[in-house]
TrEMBL record:
<dbReference type="InterPro" id="IPR015422">
    <property type="entry name" value="PyrdxlP-dep_Trfase_small"/>
</dbReference>
<comment type="similarity">
    <text>Belongs to the threonine aldolase family.</text>
</comment>
<dbReference type="GO" id="GO:0008483">
    <property type="term" value="F:transaminase activity"/>
</dbReference>
<dbReference type="InterPro" id="IPR015424">
    <property type="entry name" value="PyrdxlP-dep_Trfase"/>
</dbReference>
<feature type="domain" description="Aromatic amino acid beta-eliminating lyase/threonine aldolase">
    <location>
        <begin position="18"/>
        <end position="292"/>
    </location>
</feature>
<dbReference type="InterPro" id="IPR015421">
    <property type="entry name" value="PyrdxlP-dep_Trfase_major"/>
</dbReference>
<dbReference type="GO" id="GO:0006520">
    <property type="term" value="P:amino acid metabolic process"/>
</dbReference>
<keyword id="KW-0808">Transferase</keyword>
<dbReference type="GO" id="GO:0016829">
    <property type="term" value="F:lyase activity"/>
</dbReference>
<dbReference type="InterPro" id="IPR001597">
    <property type="entry name" value="ArAA_b-elim_lyase/Thr_aldolase"/>
</dbReference>
<protein>
    <submittedName>
        <fullName>Aminotransferase class V-fold PLP-dependent enzyme</fullName>
    </submittedName>
</protein>
<dbReference type="Pfam" id="PF01212">
    <property type="entry name" value="Beta_elim_lyase"/>
</dbReference>
<keyword id="KW-0032">Aminotransferase</keyword>
<keyword id="KW-0663">Pyridoxal phosphate</keyword>
Length: 344
């Protein structure tokens, strides 16, 4: 079986989490997120973001987090703005539209929205009863193509959204990887100040499953639990999520795991750079998108698994390679050797 670089959730979970799940297995706890582990995990996240007024809710996965947040925040006639690469637009089987909320997409080569992009959508919707009303801006950090937002970019988005009475929601499935990327100048405290809500990803960063939804806008907090329950996302054994995030947040393990994943991706990026490859986007997270010939892609696919992301002109293809917190170092070295051999 080939070693897989297709995603960052192919492995189970970090040993600390398994150990904690076993250690606390026979403790009797309240259900539905009212257990002491979930409550303590919420307190630690509030401390990390320096916001005691933010509310934290744990759910099983990213699509679930996006679906619940967006459907809870919006009234029936309101809609969402997203980059065309956004996960809610491309990879969630129309989950948002299924709740009755249209997703307006903006083509973006770098996967990042700016105020001008959002304004282009607002210009086509004049806030009259005949049209949908754009109300929420959805962004991802890191994006689905591995790029990250700078502090200035997020400040500009936040300011624009406030001026135009729009909610700003950040998909953080790979937020730890963004925070540990070279060139990043954002931290959790600033993200909490600049967004109405975001979520901190666990599934793609060492947890068995789970995301931590953080609601910063106090007007959006009341009765959010009802939406979680109605969407079937309120686990009776909510402790399973609380324990995992408690372990991830202790000692900043979630950042250590992300830094490891990023570093392994950069080793592979360096190998592709050495043989003269260009990249679809210049990334410093755990996702890279080198451009190779179809023949080269087929050669590498004989030994390693990855996705062919986008077909290009002249028999070229951008491939997507993702590393994880558990990516085997020997596999990375072997892959790098195969990459360098493409030149000859």
């Amino acid at each position: 079986m080939n070693f897989s670089f297709k995603n960052d959730y192919a492995e189970g979970c970090h040993p600390n989490i398994l150990k904690a799940l076993v250690q606390f297995n026979f403790d009797q706890q309240n259900g539905y997120g009212l257990d002491e582990y979930s409550q303590l995990a919420e307190q630690i996240i509030q401390e990390k973001i320096k916001s005691e007024t933010s509310k934290v809710h744990f759910v099983a996965g990213g699509t679930q987090a996006n679906l619940i947040v967006i459907s809870a925040f919006l009234r029936p006639h309101e809609s969402v703005v997203s980059a065309s690469t956004g996960h809610i637009f491309t990879n969630e089987a129309g989950a948002i539209e299924a709740t009755g909320h249209k997703v307006h997409s903006v083509e973006k080569a770098d996967g990042k929205l700016n105020p001008e992009d959002i304004q282009s959508i607002l210009d086509g919707h004049q806030n009259i009863p005949h049209q949908l009303k754009p109300k929420l801006v959805y962004i991802s950090n890191s994006t689905e193509i591995g790029t990250i937002y700078t502090q200035q970019e997020l400040e500009d988005l936040s300011k624009f959204c406030k001026e135009n009475e729009l909610y700003l929601f950040m998909d953080g499935a790979r937020l730890p990887q963004a925070l540990m990327a070279f060139g990043n100048d954002l931290n959790l405290e600033e993200i909490a100040k600049l967004t109405d809500a975001f979520y901190l990803g666990g599934t793609k960063n060492g947890a068995l499953l789970g995301e931590a939804i953080v609601i910063n806008n106090q007007s959006l907090q009341p009765e959010f639990g009802f939406h979680i329950k109605q969407k079937g996302a309120m686990l009776a054994k909510g402790r399973l999520l609380g324990i995992q995030f408690l372990e991830l947040m202790r000692g900043d393990l979630y950042l250590q795991l992300a830094a490891y994943a990023n570093a392994k991706a950069m080793l592979l990026k360096s190998a592709f750079t050495e043989i003269g490859c260009e990249f679809l986007t210049d990334t410093f997270t755990n996702q890279i998108f080198p451009i190779v010939s179809i023949e080269q892609a087929e050669n590498l696919a004989e030994h390693f698994d990855f996705y062919q992301w986008k077909k290009l002109e002249n028999d070229k293809v951008a491939i997507r390679i993702i590393t994880s917190w558990a990516t085997n170092e020997e596999a990375v070295e072997q892959f790098a050797t195969k990459i360098r051999a493409l030149k000859s």
